[in-house]
Amino acid sequence: MMSDDAGQMLMVYDDPSDQRSLSLDDTSSTEESPDETRLSLESTNDVVPYIGQRFPTHDAAYEYYSEFAKSCGFSIRRHRTEGKDGVGKGLTRRYFVCHRAGNTPIKTSNENKPQRNRKSSRCGCQAYMRISKVTELGAPEWRVTGFANNHNHELLEPNQVRFLPAYRTISETDKSRILMFAKTGISVQQMMRLMELEKCVEPGYLPFTEKDVRNLLQSIRKLDPEDESVDLLRMCRNIKEKDPNFRYEYTLDSNNRLENIAWSYASSIQAYEIFGDAVVFDTTHRLTALDMPLGIWVGVNNYGVPCFFGCTLLREENLRSFSWALKAFLAFMDGKAPQTILTDQNMCLKEAIAMEMPVTKHALCIWMIVVKFPSWFNAVLGERYNEWKAEFYRLYNLESIEDFEMGWRDMVNSFGLHTNRHIANLFALRMQWALPYLRSNFFAGMTTTGHSKAINAFIQRFLGAQTRLAHFVEQVAVAVDFKDQAAEQQTMQQNLQNICLKTGAPMESHAASVLTPFAFSKLQEQLVLAAHYASFPFEDGFLVRHHTKLEGGRKVYWAPQEGIISCSCHQFEFSGILCRHTLRVLSTGNCFQIPERYLPLRWRKISTHSVKLLQSSPSDHAERIQFLQSMVSSLIAESVKSKERLDLATEQVSYLLSRIRQQPVSTQGLRDISPLHRNL
């Protein structure tokens, strides 16, 4: 706070009629004759404004008062102007006031227009500076004729005042830099960090905030939305010309304006062929800069890394739009629907999935539910909120439906939630989100907390930087390409790790040679646990339970001749990884290798590119040579990405070449090769 001396009101009026209070709620312009001001108190201080202080223009006075306000801990705004009657008299008096002057006007409510419930900073502060225009000897100037520095609110510290909107500015140079960053697809947070490093300022000390950057990007988007749509379609056509495997669909409204658009990249379509069995369709985001709902299709690859399948922008969130988006997605994927799809709770989306993907199991993303818990239950449960959340997760992860429903009733009674509408709604929808009801369906592990965080972080990369609509397709492409490269690095790191065998069982070493390190670690956990279980012949199968228990257990059915085994816990159906109960039965039955059908292709050490090549391998000799050339090109392209890759490729190719040279040469092969060389 300022001292009393510094905050003393300095005003003297020549005419008592001019000694009126300053009404800061009145924003209208009034016209009255200014009275001559007699200086009864004049300061020689060059910092604090004083009566009689002169300025060549009213803008110069404003800049001076603004700098004074910043040094004191507040900002100012232009409040009211006054002028004389008569032609050519113009502006004769201006008021500059504290940014917290006046009171918030009461807005008339409009039922058809949503109201923003924003808290106002205005509190009726009376601090101000008044300047009047004086003409002497033909040279007009502006003089301070009124000044008050008493505030009815706390003033900000120097490290806080810079966050006031009046002092947050983005220079033209910084704007250009921000737009350049936005085109690369990096997040606003990353932009801020890069500019802090470039300007050598501490974090948080740029002259603008993340919100200012987002507002800038949004304002650029709003320049001409129709041109934006044209640019977006032109961008998609350009990408299609460069990459024929890029796919996109769009619709136009009756005014020939863009209504909906969806797209997918060649690498995404290729990944979907193997990993499209379980898909998340996240429609909870909106592109702020575009003011359009955004839908993103995401899955998980064989190394447990999120992979992008497709993207859609919709004008409306209704049944018609969602139905169109799902049809477009299926068209991209040659009509192949996922086994399961996870979404947010949305009735229109639920109906659209039932119509367009009738065979697909629809479930609700647990992380999209849990994120709402603080607003639903924090105030209701108070200190018991964390205790309740732990109990919720325990119930969520149960295996038995009976245990879940009994535990739910106990939870409701224990926490007194009988009349809570959110609890009632969750229970009504339990078959769409609670794991006891979903374990017979495949979800690729995407119901776990770890995967949910990884997928959410993956999606946030698309949302971080939003500029023009046409650029968004490029930004997504950059993010997908970045993620593909990161996935390759993670894959290589996993494969270079030494697999540590823990049980010594032949099944373990067999699985380690086939599965990716990510999938093998999940199976290995079950193999270790299997040693703690006992199996007993039971009816047409086995009963498997922990060695410390005398009752209960899981029923396992095994047909060795057909190579079929199943368990009542449904873990393989749920995750694609055999459970400890089935592994115990296989071990007891002297099975030394896991049956092929229980080592799914989606969890094996094989890339989507390799699968594509294998699926399309030709039998014709000449075409096989072209196929080999393609593989060699891919080998070189992949090997040069790191020294480790290059060393490994050189070693393996040298060994392979020495073996090939030991093989006999046929004249047919030479005849097939020569035309190819002539065409190179």
From TrEMBL:
Domain SWIM-type: 554-590
Cellular localisation: Nucleus
Residue segments, region Disordered: 1-43
Record keywords, A-Z: Metal-binding, Nucleus, Zinc, Zinc-finger
TM spans (from-to): none
Superkingdom, taxonomy of origin: Eukaryota
GO MF term set: zinc ion binding
One CC-aspect GO term: nucleus
SMART domains named in the record: ZnF_PMZ (SM00575)
Family designation: Belongs to the FHY3/FAR1 family.
PANTHER family, alphabetized: PROTEIN FAR1-RELATED SEQUENCE 10-RELATED, PROTEIN FAR1-RELATED SEQUENCE 11
Entry function: Putative transcription activator involved in regulating light control of development.
Entry protein name: Protein FAR1-RELATED SEQUENCE
